[in-house]
Each structure stands twice: as structure tokens, then as C-alpha cells.
Sequence to fold (935 residues):
Amino acid sequence: MSRDGVTVTGGPRATEARLLTGAVVLTSFAAVLLGWSESPELPPTAIVTGLALAVTALVAHLTVRAFAPDADPTLLPLAFLLNGLGLVFVRRVDLATGSDLAATQTVWTAVSVGALCATLLVIRRVAVFGRYQYTFGLLTIVLLLSPLIPGLTAGVINGAQLWIDVFGMRFQPGEIAKLTMVVFLAGYLERNRALLSVATQRIGPVMLPAARHLAPVLVAAVMAMVIMAGLRDLGTALLFFGAFIAMLYVATGRLAYPAFGAVFFGFAAWLAYLQFGHVRVRVSIWLDPWADVTGIGYQLAQSLFALGTGGLTGTGLGLGRPQDVPFSATDAIFVVIGEELGLLGATVVLLLYLVIVVRGFRIAQTARDEFGTLLATGLTVTLAAQTFVIVGGLTRLVPLTGITLPFVSYGGSALLSNYLLIALLLRISDESRGAAKGRDPDLQADAAARRRS
Amino acid sequence: MNRQIGRVAAVTFLLFGALFINLNIITLLQADELANHPSNRRLILREYAIERGPIVAGEEAIARSVPTDGEFQYLRTYPDSELYAHLTGYYSIQLQRSGLERALNEDLTGRSTEVVAQNLGELLGGSERPGNAVQLSIEPAVQRAARSALDGREGAVVALDPRTGAVLASYANPTFDPNPLSGHDRRVINDTWAALNERDDRPLIDRTRAETYPPGSVFKLVVAAAALESGLEPTTLFPDEGVYDVPQTQANIGNFSGGVCDDGDEISLTDAMRVSCNTVFARLGVELGDDALRDQAERFGFNDAPPFDLGVTDSIFPRELDVPSLAQSAIGQRDVRATPLQMAVLAGSIANGGQLMRPHVVDAVRDPDGAQLRGPDVGRWTGPPGGGLPISPRTAQQLRSMMLDVVNSGTGTAARIDGVEVGGKTGTAQTGGDPVAWFVGFAGDEVAIAVMVPGAGSDATGGAVAAPIARSVLSAALEARR
Fold:
């Protein structure tokens, strides 16, 4: 096994190369199909999509080969397939609405993949994050609050204040805050795991650790909730809280935390319901979207119409009506896929996420250290929760809140954040497998130290 | 920590499982309901992507679809604007459909004859198959004659072929222009719709079939039919009195002229019909009894509505009648009510020798290649008691000749056409406001007609107002059928 990483070998990188090729071919095929639905002479954009994806995939693959040779081979192909599907369907929405988002999204793909490569290049061990946990905690708060800063804020868009304008680019810092929050929590929980696991207080039948150990965690959670309520972004709040509770449970093994969390969440939701008109509206739409189909229930009704019209096999690529669905390129892109590719296509998309999630939890279980385990858990849960919240919202399983579908929805900050998430999971998996193989002397020493202790 | 991760993973899988199940429910179980939900625009857009078949009267397309550049690919237009509005109805993105556009939607979209193989071929060819053409039995010249004879006055004209029930003209004032309602500008649709609904004269109501009116003396045809069926003869004599002393009430019945009908002695049934003698028919009605009158009215189709391509309101002969009401009903007052279409069908049954024919306005449905898919729905209206044979051929013959007398030398002379056998009966129903003027009759055995004009002034009569309209329309119909 060579350290230079470029040498072709069997094993994970060869697998990754084959899967990536598959992802690029599938995307190119879909892009060409869509191109043909546009005009009999294939428009150049149809080929550009496949080409752009091929180039970025090659760069990412070579980077992983060089700097994370033992990383999980499925994550990158899954991300690229979803990303490619996203590019095709954003282009699809462009065709329907006359917008021009696909080009921007292609640029963001390149930027995001660049960020993934840079992360793998710079961060050789995720443990370094552990040293800066409070920096990340602070960074989370700054990122979340930045849309409120005058001069930076992009104002209220679609009822929420979540965007900033930097050098003429619109950016959603909350997407990056998801990652910094998970990094902070992983570091914090790793340090205080033991303390948090020991219950010293009894509240009714529930045993809880001392308040002073619990306090910082609660403060972080409450702050996230408050900020989110202030920014009116319920979906992200739910996501933060879900990741927080899951990590706390994994760190301590105490079921009291999720139980306490559920009660806390129920209470917060109830307060939000009483306090915010827009929350009440969301809930009433969820309970009966048909009461006001042309008004407040429009978006959910259109989502369901799209899925119902698609049926089992869909209308076919390019034959649906994404122009009828509000936010079809961003929040609602899943139903555009559902309408045109049917239940079968939508199921494939969900399965892709499920495979990422399975791999994510596997990486968490096999991570070299507890920080890696907690980090991988948090990242995986974040991705899973985000997928659940938006797909569940669009299918009326839960109240609909605006949030992006990872890798697929149009949106640069979300794409960047998701690729960074994949980069971290790649790094964690590379560390553990590398250590198991005794690849890195440094890591070997580490492993030896762990065995001795 | 691995056990905890396993549990978190399990919860995650459960949530994803819920997503899968829910997605299956929506895309499989609820798919039809969602795809065909009235608020799902895909349905209407798909419909507007089809070149809807034309509705044709004579040689003219009175409703046709023309391609547009907009989101809705075809625009429904009505070249004669208001002339056929009550027949065609409108075809609107906002208000759905009305009239024949609604009743024949399956034919017009071509869905009634969809053939999968054919459509697959056309789908690959990239074009949707146009809808079927609907040919009406309406004669444009007769329809125009009805409009110009009414001359803007409120009223209704129905002309039909008594032999087949084919409607030749069906026109009512006031009417409306279906074009703005069928356009693609929602604001125009809403404004037009609101304005039409605000109008007191209710132009959206088709007065030929959707509204009933007191038939007045036209109803004497029913009383005479009952009398003849009971064995009386046209020559049977009745006392000719200035006032009929109605039993059980002080409200007696006089004649329209205020005096006697003839010489004050005796008058035959034929003459009583000719001059529309109220006292004779009120007495006759009371003597025959309300059961006999009701039975005869129902044999003609009262308390029911003729089966038709469009909705028709029931014409009414009241259920329970005391003697004073019966006397009033026998001269078509009180609660007796009829649609002009019903009265045209009744006139047709006298003209054709005693058969109640089903009225119809659809003559044929043709596919885009011109092949006939369906012909006219010709047949007897078998619903009413007597199975569509309301009177014997002999009674029909007797009534027919009585009606010829009305036009030759009675109240209906304004309907006379030289060289043509025109028969009829006038009616002037008192309503409290302006009277409702009627003429119901026929020309030869080719055309039957009902003309109804309410609100043509306090001194309007069937003979003065309705009979001339009937004359114009009958002439046009004879001309068109020649």
C-alpha cells in the first residue's frame, strides 16, 4: 500500500472510483434526457452538467486518494449522485419558470467540492477541533446572529431573516452553524461525558446530573432555540435540537436526556404555538391543507398534487409542472422529483440518504476516539433530521417548514455545508480505518497509547 | 457508546420508514384523488392543451377553440357572442363549464372515444388528438329570426320539429356573451361574472327551460284535450256567459273582453277556443274535475321535465286544488306554470298526431376525421303517464283544427302565413305586474313553436305581442327547412 495515494489499488478507492463513475453517468444521462425534452438538438447545458460533475468528482476522488486513502468509499459517490440529480432538477425548474439557477448551482458545486478538498488537505485529524470547542461554540452563535447585523443582513426573505450578503453573494450562515454547533457539542460532550453520565439529582422518577454540568449544554440548546425563534426558522431549530439530544444520549447512555428533551421540545413547541402566528398557521395547514387551497394551504396542496399526479412511475422527466409548486427549486424540489420520476424515483432518492445515514452511523461506531464518534453521530443525525423534516413536511407527515433537501435543493451555503459534512465523515472514517491498518506512524503511536491506557 | 448509536440509528430508520409508508399512501392510494382534485391545475391545463371540438349549428361553428401562445394552449371563442349563449354555455378556467360545454364535455374533449393505441401513436408524434365536433339541430337562420323578432324584449322562443323533437331554435332574452367568461384573464372573468350576477334581469338564466311562467289561456289546450278525451266534441255547446259564477267563492271569472264571448246564448268548444273564452273553460275545468285535468296535464309532461341535452325545470300543475283554484287553473292562472320548452313539446304532440317527442338539440357527434360517432336521440318521451301518447290521434286532429281556427279567425291571426297551415293558441297570463304573453302553435307538420314574452307592457296580449314573433320564426323555419 502506497502513501502517495495516486497508485491505483483495489480496495476502497477503486470502489469509490467505480461508484463515482456510475453517479456521473447517471447524472449525465438524466441531463441529456432533460435536454431532449427541451429541444431535439441537445442544448449545451445538458452536456455541461455532466462534464462539470465529472471534473469535480475527479478532483475530489484524487484528493481523497491522496489525503484520506482509507476513507469510506460510498459517501462521495452518494453525495455526487444527489448533487447531480439536484443540478438536473434545478435545471428542470429553470426550464419551467424561466429562472437561471442551474448555472449558479454548478459554480457552487465546484466551490463546495473545493472546500471539501481543502478540508481534507488541512484537517488531518478531527481531534484538532476538540481543542477549539468553545471557539466553535462562539462561532455558532455569531453565525446564527449574523443575519441580524445591519449592513450584513439581506433582510427578511419569505418570512425569515436567515441570509447575509457578502461581496454581492447571498449566503445563509445558519447552514454552516449546523456544523460548528455539532463540532462544539462533540467536544463539550466528550470532555464532560463522565460527569453528565452520573445522575445525582432526582426529579420525580428521572435521575439527572448536577445542574452545573448540565447547564452549559442547556444554555447552548436554549440559545439555539431562541435564536431560531427570533429568526423564525423552525426547521433549523428542530434540526439543532434533534442533533443535540441524539449526541447527548449517545455520550451519556442515559435515556433521561431524550425523555427530558422530548418534554422540553413539547413545551417549546407549545410556547411557539401560542406565541407565533406563523406557527399556528403552519399547524392549521398541516391539520387541514384543503381548507384554504388557494391561500395558506397552497404550497402543501401543490406538493401533494405533484406527488399524486406523479403516481408510481411519474410523468417523466420534463413533463411535470414544477411552476405550480412554490419554492420548487429549493424547499420543494423533492416533490418535483416525485412528480416526474414517481414513487420509484422518490424512493431511490430517499434510499440514497438512508445509505449515507447507515454509513454515517457505522463511521460513528468505528471512529478512533470518542470525539470522532460523537462528531460522526451529530453530523449523521443532522443530515437525517434535515431530510426527514423537509420530506415529511412536503408529504404532510409533519408540519411543513422551509428547509433545504441536502445536496439536491438549490442553495450555495447548504451545498457547501453538506460537502463539508461529508468531508468530516470522510476524515473520521479514514482515521479509524487507517489506524486499524496501522497506516500512520503518528496514528499508530496514538493507537498504541490507547491500547496501553 | 455503540449501543446508543444503534438505538439512535433505529429511531432514524423508523422515521425514514414512516416517510416511505406515507409516500406510498400519497402516490398510490391517494393518487387518483389528488390528480383529479378540482384545485389541481394540471387537470385543466391538460384539458386546455387539447383542441376542444367545435359546436356547430348549420354550417357555422358557434363555439370553437383557437390556439394561443399563453399557458392555456387554446382559447374557446363564440363568434356569435350572445346568440347561442344559453345553449353553448361558457367554458371557463375559473367557473368550470355550463350549458352544452358542460353536458357534452366528454365528447368535446374526445375523452368519450379515447382509444389507447391511437393516442399512444399520437403521443409519440407529439400532438394531442383534437376533441369531437358536436353538430346541433339548431338552424342558425331560425335562431337569428327568434332574436330579431324578440327585438331585445325579455322573452323566450323555442321552435322544434314535431316529427323528431329536433330543436330548430332556442333563444331567450336577456342573454350574455360567453367570450369574456371563457377567456384566460381571471380578472376579466371575475369582473364579468360579478356584473352578470348583479343584474336584476338575470341574464344567465335560460328562460326557455330553466324558468316557469303561468301559461294563461294556452293551458286551454290541455283542458280541451281532457274534454275531448272524455267524449265531448268540438261542436259541444256551452252557455255563453259574461261571468262564470265559480262555486264556493265570490271571486268569479269573467272574459278578457269583459262581456260575453259570442252572442250570449250558446257557444261551441271550437269557438270558445277560437276567441279564448274564459267562462267556458273555467266551467269546463270545474266540471271535468281536478283529477282529470291533472291527469291530462301530466300526460303532456307536466309535473316532470322533458329529457333534454340540458337541464329543464319541471312544469307544474298543482297537486291539490279546491274548486275556485281549479277554475283559475283551467285558464292557466294561479299555480299552473310551464317552461316554454314544455309548451313547444306539447304543441308538437298536437301537430304530429298525438306523440310526445323527446326534444333534443344534438344532431350528431363526429370525430376529427368527420366520421359520425353518434346520431340524434330521436324517440318518444315515455316518462309521463300514457307513455308519451297524451291524446288519441282523433283528439289531436280535433285540437289541430281548433288551433287552425284560432289563427285563421280568432285571437291568433297575427301568426297567419299565406299558403301555410298555421295553427296556435294565444295566452295572456295575469301576474299582478305585466301580463305574460304567449303563443303556442305549429306550421304544417314541420314546425312547432312556443313564444313567451313577459313584461311587454300592461296591455300586452298573446295575440298582439307573441303571435307576430311566432309568425316570423315559423316563416324562417319553413324557409330553412325547404
Notes: Residues 114-126 of chain B have pLDDT under 50 and may be disordered. The longest strand of chain B covers residues 60-67. Chain B touches chain A at residues 1-9, 12-13, 15-16, 18-20, 22-24, 26-28, 30-35, 37, 39-42, 45 (CB under 8 Å).
